[in-house]
Amino acid sequence: MRKKPLNFIVIGLIIAATDVSIAHHSIFPFDQGSFVELDGVVSEMLWRNPHVRLKMRVQNDAGEEEEWELEGDSANATARRGLTRDSMSVGNRIRVAGHPSNRGLREILLTNILMPNGEEYLATERPRPWRWTEGRAGVTSPDTSSGSSIFHVWSFEVLHRVEEPFVFTPAAQAARAAWDPFTDMLALRCIAPGMPNAMHSPYPIEFIDEGNQIRLRIEMWEATRLIDMVSEEIPENSPSSSLGYAIGRWEGETLVVETANIDDPYLDDAGTPMSEEVRVVERFTLSENGTRLDYEVTVTDSPNLAEPAIEYAAWRWVPSIEISPYECIPE
Asked: Read out DSSP for 273-311?
């Protein structure tokens, strides 16, 4: 039986954690309903995309040293929080908090880091509270006082969520059961995901009005989607690709995007297969004051989904945020 490490504090536990069936690949191997804290010494740093990774030596109750792996957000995301490779060094004693592995491994998904000088950093771009301090100036209260249109850079605000659990077909269930995230996940080899998974990114996106089409830039993987604003139906001879062929229309302040011809093996980062029959309908709705963009996506794929799957997310307008280059280094 593995001994508890010293200063390993279980902060909270929600017995039934939310099942995010289509999830960003850094999230699902961790228990989002629990928090732990660790005190230890940084032994290794790997500052890169898609995830910053640290190793930390922690002493357990028996006085024995254990090594823990810490997974943070992308290097781009942590930089926007003021956390860079220059913020700490190997040998620093730090305190960290985050979500523990749901596979019994000595790993946590980082949310907070307390430095030796007493400064606290958020290790994720997802909204998280400060744990030990009142925070760092300019990080938690961005200027979102006004906005006017969808056509600018949007910063992530609300992680994808589902209102009802997805219903998988027997074939999809078997494929998911046989899938190993530690060997089969394409992101570990820096293979960019296709639609709809390309939108499951807690990083900035940008809409650019190009007249007959809208260019949608996604920071993660430096993906670019082109949305045909002229065609009323998917053209018969339109090409297939991992991002598919998209057509769009306006319904008031809502941009409705329909995508087909998606050539990608997976619906998500949990091994759910995806067929060539898949259809994706997205709704991007601008708030009244133009500072929030609500997102609804409906995925229909009868060979793998017994009924359409619906997810929700949101972005917010932060004028200072820009899309940064994304250089992925394989795990």
From this structure: B--TT-EEEEEEEE-TTSSEEEEEEEEE-TTTBSS-EEE
